[in-house]
């Protein structure tokens, strides 16, 4: 490809290296049965910002549910169009039904199939589109408004030659539900949690338990309801997340719930300890320049000061980073 910026083979070359991320630590390779994937070239420590990128294509919103992908593609300059067309596409039966597939010209079909196989929100990314799925991913993605880019961080240490994966599945759910969600990408998940082996089934048992605990909490809404039982459930969930390797945003949310629960119960020391854990997870998932991380550090500072103070503690003394800053219902 003439334009070096969109030459995936040059990811690791000095010209591909930017100060914003560590893409020189990865390379795109053929996987066993999953097409291309992203692999580590060397050991990558937890919390490394592996990729920070702007969208290659941003679909135009026609309404809240409908986007115009073709118009967005037509507006791209030729090097970006060529880069876009080199991505993998998959046309699910639903996509075909919704788009009068047989009547569409080949190029339109390709543009749509690539979009629906690769989009995050309304965006398609050049490098990040190559991250394959795992139900136990080692990468977390989030939009960072400070640098105005989508970021992809390692959430645990990654060994050389290991594949880097994100989760395409939303919510904590069991194997059959995850696979049902993955069907639109047209593949069968073979991640460690989806293998019908003693090890795979052991992980799946823990994930099933996690999904059940989550459901129990939701039924006892609000999640932060201050009770010893709820706090105990958060603790069990955190332990299960650690043992399965689900150590990204779910773990962060679990720590936040536990911190709130403790604070509402009046235990500032416990709230502080849970928040310390939450800040740690946010740090490696988002990076320290992310506004959410900085807000959480602010909460931790307030809790530390409240813990030192001799005054009686009430959770409303803390300015939490929540939708319900006024307190729970
Ligand atoms: Zn899986």
UniProtKB/TrEMBL annotation:
Query: SMART domains per the record?
Result: SET
Ranges where the SET domain occurs: 24-169
Q: What domain of life does the UniProt record list for this protein's source?
A: Eukaryota
Q: Which SUPFAM superfamilies match?
A: SET domain
UniProt xrefs under PANTHER family: SET DOMAIN-CONTAINING PROTEIN 5
Write down what this protein is called: TPR domain protein
To which species is this protein native?
A: Lentithecium fluviatile CBS 122367
